[in-house]
Design goal:
alpha+beta, binds zinc ion, two-stranded antiparallel ribbon, 63 residues
């Protein structure tokens, strides 16, 4: 990756901040049918399949 290419990427703290502010405490059913409560220490982990349309599943269904 060139220096210019590298500079187009934001830091992970910004991604975390965006997700945290948008999702804090919210509850969702995922594409796999399981559930997630954000910012809950017993909540499911989540995998985001990248692409034109994001597919969001729990970590157990991501394999
Ligand atoms: Zn699942």
């Amino acid at each position: 990756m060139t220096k210019e290419e590298k500079e187009r990427y934001e830091e992970p703290e910004l991604l975390r901040d965006i997700l945290q502010r948008t999702l804090a405490g919210k509850k969702f059913r995922l594409d796999c049918g399981h559930y997630v409560t954000w910012n809950h220490h017993l909540g499911n982990d989540v995998t985001i399949r990248n692409g034109n349309k994001l597919r969001i599943v729990c970590s157990l269904c991501s394999y």
